Amino acid sequence: MTTRPYIVGNWKMHGTRAMLAEARAIDRAAERLLKVEVALAPPFTLIHATRKEANLIGIGAQDVHAAEGGAHTGDISAAMAKDAGAGFTIVGHSERRADHKESNALVQEKATAAIAAGMNVIVCVGETEEERDSGKAEAVVGRQLTGSLPTGEGVAEKVTVAYEPVWAIGTGRTPTVDDIGAMHRHIRAKLVSIYGEEGQGIRILYGGSVKPDNAAELLAADEVGGALVGGASLTAESFLGIIVAAAEAQDEKS
Ligand code: 13P
Q1: What is the DSSP string of 173-200?
Q2: Which of 63, 94, 164 for mutating ligand 1's site (highest number of atoms within 8 Å of CB)?
Q3: How far, in Å, CA of 113 to CA of 109, rounded?
Q4: In this predicted model, what pLDDT tens digit does every residue of 200-209 receive, in sequence order?
Q5: Of ligand 1's atoms, which has the minimum distance to the CA of residue 124?
Q6: Measuring from each residue's beta carbon to the nearest atom of ligand 1, which residues come in under 6 Å?
Q7: Could you tell me the residue ranges of all domains in the chain?
Q8: Average pLDDT value for the chain
Q9: FRET partner for 59 with CA separation of 20 to 30 A, picked from 12, 101, 160, 229?
Q10: Catalytic pick among 93, 102, 109, 223
Q11: How confident is the model at residue 3 (pLDDT cuts 50, 70, 90)?
């Protein structure tokens, strides 16, 4: 299992073809920073074009439907996203859990469908501010993991987990490094209880207001294997600041 930090940009509902220049610049720079595994999850409409622009970085989807196909107007199956060029998909992002009322069970179905279609998955979990303030963060994240993670033979190696506290997304606020470390240790223990020894190799990303100027500190927290980045992944300049910080953090470890 690779120990390279994994830095993933989630473009959310941003981007038209005008943004392909950013993807190209990110890809070119990633060629000089091979200590870091870099990926982008553009909107569905840009997956194919982004794949064509980028030689090196991973390209993924932000969501897929759980069904293989059928009467689901406006939805995209895992096989379709893969055919367009996506090698992985995010599932269970808190914005989908909130906007589309996605349950843990549905997120698990989506992850299972994506893996069956030959993709890797990034399964997102994270507590709300109220849940953190009332001391329930670890319990909530534990339930999300148990309910959302795909299970079965050979599945663990396809899975990455992203811990994104809802209150840190797009707010400029982040947990302390100690709190991130504590939650990531909790997630690691849960992964081992679900997948056995294979759970040790699963990367756990931190997401929520990761920027070039806080990336080094956040990536140094215990058990943090990379970052899932929203706003700061929208320009090559700021995303590269995070990738460089990850490469430097890797140098310090080795
Ligand atoms: P921001 O980096 O904009 O806080 O978003 C984080 C996120 O939700 C990535 O999936």
Answers
A1: ----HHHHHHHHHHHHHHHHHHHGGGGG
A2: 164
A3: 6
A4: 999 999 999 9
A5: 10
A6: 10, 93, 164, 169-170, 207-210, 228-232
A7: 6-253
A8: 96
A9: 101
A10: 93
A11: confident
> Are 164 and 210 contacting, i.e. CB atoms less than 8 angstroms apart?
no
Q: Which residues does 122 contact at the CB level (< 8 Å), separation at least 6?
A: 8, 60, 88, 89, 90, 91, 160, 161, 162, 205, 228
**CATH of range 6-253; options 3.90.980.10, 3.20.20.70, 3.20.10.10, 3.40.50.300:** 3.20.20.70
Average of per-residue pLDDT across 190-204:
97
Compute the distance between CA of residue 37 and CA of residue 66 in angstroms, rounded to an integer: 27
Radius of gyration of the chain, Cα coordinates, nearest whole angstrom: 17
Taking the centre of ligand 1 as the mean of its atom positions, its distance from the CA of residue 228, in whole angstroms, is 7
Ligand 1 centroid distance, CA of 97 (Å): 14
